Amino acid sequence: MKHRIVVLGAGYAGANAAGRLARRLHRDDFEITLVNGDPEFVERVRMHQLASGQDLPHRPLRDVYAGTGVRVRPARVTAVDVDRKTVDLTSAHGAETLGYDTLVYALGSTVADQGVPGVAEYAYDVAGKQAALRLRARLSELAPGGTVLVAGGGLTGIEAATEIAEAHPDLEVSIAARAGVGDWLSDKARRHLRGVFDRLGITVHEHADITRVEANGVVTGAAGEIPAQVTVWTVGFTVHPIAAATTLEVSDTGRIVVDGTMRSVSHPDVYAVGDAGIAEGAGGQPLRMSCASGIPMAWLAADSLAARLTGREVPETTIGYSVQCISLGRRDGIIQRVTPGDQAMSTVVKGRTAARIKELICAGAAWSISHPTAMLPSRRRHLVATGEVATGEVETRFVAP
């Protein structure tokens, strides 16, 4: 009987894990099933582009994995039982239960309301394709002079505000943050960011602690009310509650606790990658929720799992960062050099050159998923006949962009 590997989620982490496993494991011994709610691969890092009115390429997962041996199952995950090793699914064909021998959990994250009243009722977000399309439709309804407020001064908020302002120059766009907007960046990067905000006419509200979202704006603790016909919520992300409902060991935020190989510390037949897993990176700090973390996590999980199943040495890896890439519309950007522990350094690339670099990185990430067997030589190995796995370790280092 074949060893059944089920990958839940086909975002950057899950899609990369499935493709890498297909290159590592022999089809005669392994069955890889990729479960995803959307039948297409969604470039989540481009959702601000989709929301602003741009069209993105369609990448059907069945076409992506055709000929790789990966079986694609379009379905929504409703529950996981890690003790019985089953996954409950709902699809157009109804409800069913899928069994597994090894699970790769990559269900990602969604928008978090942070306990602020009114977010669910009145705010828009860019955490997924349907959410971005909903915002896109609402923006198209606004008359010239319409007001848009982006809540959140992190990477997602900055990219959403600048993209919307550039694509809709007839709208009044503002951004509000509890602390400073982009305050983790170097001085040089912050100066450039402020220049872009000025050029695009974006109003900045800093130290604005939003306490309530209403139909026509937000209420803050210090700045009073900020009017807006559309509020875009980018204050934070949270994982789906499915993992926390199992017997898996999870963090206080519901992320699956994993070891240095992305394997669950409580259930060795479960791996967690991307936003769904909480792993220690360079400097001993948890990796942040991002594509830059998710892809290296997927590589490491796939390589570690394949090594254990085929009796080879398990890699020992520290995931570190090298840069943070921020798009500021289609013609501007910031490439911030960071330490492996994700702290800003003085080196910055900005302007059109940074925009081109960011585009190359995003396009490369999507290309690697669309060509799952082209990135590395295929060395498909058989399952260890005795069921034993290797315990040796090989020193490796993955550096995330």
Automatic annotation (TrEMBL):
GO terms for biological process: aerobic electron transport chain. This is FAD-dependent oxidoreductase. SUPFAM superfamilies: FAD/NAD(P)-binding domain. Belongs to the NADH dehydrogenase family. It comes from Nonomuraea cypriaca. InterPro entries: FAD/NAD-bd_sf, FAD/NAD-binding_dom, NADH-Q_oxidoreductase. Residues 4-277 form the FAD/NAD(P)-binding domain. Keywords: FAD, Flavoprotein, Oxidoreductase. The lineage of its organism: Bacteria, Bacillati, Actinomycetota, Actinomycetes, Streptosporangiales. GO terms for molecular function: NAD(P)H dehydrogenase (quinone) activity.
